[in-house]
Design brief:
By secondary structure, this protein is of the alpha/beta class. It has a single domain, classed as TIM Barrel (Alpha-Beta Barrel). The chain has twelve helices and eight strands. Strands 7-6-5-4-3-2-1-8 form an eight-stranded parallel β-sheet. Strand 1, helix 4 and strand 2 form a beta-alpha-beta unit. Helix 6 runs parallel beside helix 8. It is globular.
């Protein structure tokens, strides 16, 4: 994944004039377009290719208070070999864990292409002093995290303190060093598509390598219209500056059918250049098994029992 270049200074500051007006986004039109794109049909060979790509784009995630080294090790094994009986099934993109379990994941994934991602910055609330957030990021990076998934301070954003949010992302990005930064907007708490676009532009201007919908801890999480809104912001930044930023919908994507819908929206909005794990990820903990079952169905014509695959 190439390091995203900094945006031109004129795009970064001042922030206020660059942010959309309230009511600027036509919610009805956005939702209608997302719904229309989701209806695109895909034939058998293309569907198999889309399912294969979906696996390669997944970040398998475990972010529970009861996480153990054993649970993370088992998840890493599944990440590398999603179906141990079928070597044609690719590995996933990354495993995402809390900072204190990064070393376990790093050791278990050694020698594989699977990245280790870690949440940080007082996940999932984002409600900690900046010094604590930066220490959180530094610890995860020192333990070996390849990617950092940070959360923005939604309280600051919703109260209009955009510069505070911007500055925190800039400092977190610096603390990441060589690790790539995904900025979680927690769109379910932002209240409007205008705010989703505002937060997307702000995060990209501050240096995000990816923008991400959700923590998975708040409902609603990822939706097709919200994802389309964010993809259009990515497209507009690319058109204006040439900068390439990735996208990660996360939370609530549980079926192969949903994954294919997201890929259709992605392809229609940003084109084939973004159809790669380097620029698009699914934040998923329950999607993989359904995709594996659908691959079996496409190849054999019969559904495989869900009991055949290990539980994530």
């Amino acid at each position: 994944m190439a390091q995203a270049p900094a945006l031109p200074r004129g795009f970064e500051l001042p922030l206020e004039p660059r942010l959309p007006r309230i009511g600027a986004i036509d919610a009805v039109a956005l939702e209608a377009r997302a719904g229309e794109l989701a209806k695109r049909s895909i034939k058998k060979d293309a569907k198999l290719a889309a399912l294969d790509l979906s696996i390669r784009m997944m970040d398998l995630t475990t972010l529970e208070g009861a996480d153990t080294p054993g649970k993370v090790a088992a998840l890493c094994s599944k990440a590398m070999r999603p179906d141990p009986t079928d070597p044609s099934i690719p590995s996933v993109a990354a495993v995402c864990v809390y900072p204190n379990l990064v070393a376990v994941a790093k050791e278990r994934l050694a020698g594989s292409a699977v990245k280790v991602a870690s949440v940080a910055t007082a996940f999932p609330s984002g409600q900690s002093p900046l010094a604590v957030k930066l220490a959180d990021v530094s610890a995860a990076v020192e333990l070996g995290a390849d990617e950092i998934d940070m959360v923005i301070d939604r309280g600051a954003f919703l109260s209009g303190r955009y510069a505070k949010v911007f500055d925190e992302i800039v400092e977190v990005k610096a603390a990441c060093g060589e690790a790539h930064l995904k900025v979680i907007l927690e769109t379910g708490e932002l209240g409007s598509y205008d705010n989703v676009r505002r937060a997307s532009l702000l995060a990209m201007a501050a240096g995000a390598d990816f923008i991400k919908t959700s923590t998975g801890k708040v409902a609603p999480a990822a939706t097709l219209p919200v994802t389309l809104c964010m993809l259009e912001a990515i497209r507009d930044v690319h058109d204006e500056t040439g900068r390439i930023v990735g996208m990660k919908p996360a939370g609530g994507i549980r079926s192969a059918r949903q994954a294919i819908q997201y890929l259709c929206v992605l392809n229609e909005t940003l084109g084939s250049a973004w159809m790669t794990p380097a620029l698009f990820r699914f934040g998923a903990s329950s999607l993989l098994n359904d995709v594996l079952m659908q691959i079996r169905k496409q190849r054999t014509g019969a559904y495989q029992s869900g009991d055949y695959f290990t539980i994530d």
